[in-house]
Amino acid sequence: MAARYPRKYSREEEYEQLYNNYEYLFCSSFWGFEIGPGWFEYIADFLVKFDRYMKEKEYNPEDYKIMQIKNKFGTLRIYLAGSDFYINSLIAETEANANDCCIICGKKALGSIGIYTQMCEEHIKEF
């Protein structure tokens, strides 16, 4: 389900469990989490808040399906089939928080490597 990173950084099982817990929030063509292990906490937090909001508003989940969660040019992107002001704010907050963090470990990022990814000093040296 998740992007491929060296085994010692893998969180594939956690991403799979997260998907299984919130499968009803994802569209049928969702390909998986195309992001690194360092952004897991941000995605988990987003899904909890999104799920809670959907239940509070009694929205039909079919109208607000998650289409894609990916790393695009070194930044987190979350795409939904439908949205409203709160959901847009939640997405913007999640993306902004993750975009300052290493895609591998989640620590404060030193900067981007080209246009492809954010990494901390330790992982820039490693990769």
Question: What key phrases describe this protein's structure?
Answer:
127 residues, 3-stranded mixed beta sheet, two-stranded antiparallel ribbon, 4 helices, elongated
Parts with pLDDT < 50 across at least 5 consecutive residues: none
- Strand and helix order: HEHEEHEEH
Structural class by sheet pairing and helices: alpha+beta
Percentage of residues in DSSP E strands: 15-25%
Which term fits the overall shape? elongated
- Counted up, domains total 1
Q: Helical content, roughly?
A: 25-40%
Widest β-sheet, arrangement of strands: 1-2-3
Radius of gyration: 15 Å
Tell me how many strands there are: 5
Number of helices: 4
The largest β sheet comes out as: 3 strands, mixed
The first-to-last residue Cα distance is 22 Å
Overall average residue pLDDT: 87
Overview of this protein structure:
The protein has 127 residues and is α+β, with helices and mostly antiparallel strands. The chain has one domain. It has four helices and five strands. α2 packs antiparallel against α3. The longest helix has 18 residues, at 40-57.
Structural topology:
Blueprint (H helix, E strand, L loop, with lengths): L11 H10 L11 E2 L5 H18 L8 E7 L2 E6 L4 H14 L12 E3 L3 E3 L1 H6 L1
Parallel strand pairs: 1-2
Antiparallel strand pairs: 2-3, 4-5
